[in-house]
């Protein structure tokens, strides 16, 4: 009987003999009827497919897959530290976490405030937003709205359209899926067609992703931000990053 680890292309044991130099590997059997491969102090590198081969006249094989889960860990050396930013500037906070499965990283304020991604047209998550576009011309222009990406416009939670016609675009119960640039396009068959780009940002109670970018920082953005890494393998870990805003002007 031989044991192999496919991911490492390694023969681990043959009969009672351990072939690999890995000291954590051992083998045992129950009167040569049932053979057991033992791996002590499991590491992430041990994950993968294992094969047990019985060397009879016609070789018989069976396979098994070892899943190794690793709790999340935040790498401070690759993550942001406390930062001081001049008011009106941009700030980028990064959080690097390892684990298996790969952790999901979320950002939250360490108080009841929302995270302000940018200040272009910021709306609180769950609120309504109204965008207006006024155009003149003869004949009177037709105004249409489109997203500046392939996403649809969510008029409400049950109605989404590729484009919307009218000078006023109203959207209810805004979510993070509604963030992005919206194009107001005015045309009246007299060239050229003109457009205006309006960026909509949603103030979030939490933001998902390893990098948090905030533009045009103000004193309202001062405070502690929590980077939280989780992958359903306890414990969830977090890092606290303090953002200070320099409001002094020369």
UniProtKB/TrEMBL annotation:
Domain of life: Eukaryota
Entries under Pfam families matching the protein: Ig_3
Domain Ig-like as annotated: residue spans: 1-62, 102-195
Residues making up the signal peptide according to the UniProt record: none
Protein name in UniProt: Neuronal growth regulator 1-like
Keywords annotated in UniProt: Cell membrane, Disulfide bond, Glycoprotein, Immunoglobulin domain, Membrane, Repeat, Signal
Native organism: Diaphorina citri
Any one of the GO CC terms: neuron projection
CDD domains noted in UniProt: Ig
Subcellular localization: Cell membrane
Keyword Membrane recorded: yes
InterPro entries: Ig-like_dom (IPR007110), Ig-like_dom_sf (IPR036179), Ig-like_fold (IPR013783), Ig_sub (IPR003599), Ig_sub2 (IPR003598), Neural/epithelial_adhesion (IPR051170)
């Amino acid at each position: 009987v031989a044991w192999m680890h496919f991911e490492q292309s390694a023969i681990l044991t043959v009969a009672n003999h351990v072939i690999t130099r890995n000291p954590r590997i051992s083998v045992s059997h129950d009167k040569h009827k049932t053979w057991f491969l033992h791996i002590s102090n499991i590491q992430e590198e041990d994950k993968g497919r294992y094969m047990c081969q019985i060397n009879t006249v016609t070789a018989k094989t069976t396979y098994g897959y070892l899943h190794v889960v690793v709790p999340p860990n935040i790498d401070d050396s690759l993550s942001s530290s406390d930062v001081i930013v001049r008011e009106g500037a941009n700030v980028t906070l990064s959080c690097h976490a390892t684990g298996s499965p790969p952790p999901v990283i979320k950002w939250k304020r360490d108080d009841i405030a929302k995270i302000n991604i940018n200040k272009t047209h910021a709306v609180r998550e769950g609120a309504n937003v109204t965008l207006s576009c006024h155009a003149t011309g003869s004949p009177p222009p037709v105004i249409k709205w489109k997203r500046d990406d392939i996403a649809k416009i969510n008029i409400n939670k049950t109605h989404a359209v590729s484009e919307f016609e009218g000078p006023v675009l109203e959207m209810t119960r805004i979510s993070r899926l509604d963030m992005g640039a919206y194009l107001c396009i005015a045309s009246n068959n007299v060239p050229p067609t003109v457009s205006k780009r309006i960026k909509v940002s949603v103030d979030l109670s939490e933001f998902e992703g390893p990098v948090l970018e905030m533009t045009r920082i103000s004193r309202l953005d001062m405070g502690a931000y929590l980077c939280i890494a989780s992958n359903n393998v306890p414990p969830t870990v977090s890092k606290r990053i303090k953002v200070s805003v320099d409001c002094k002007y020369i």
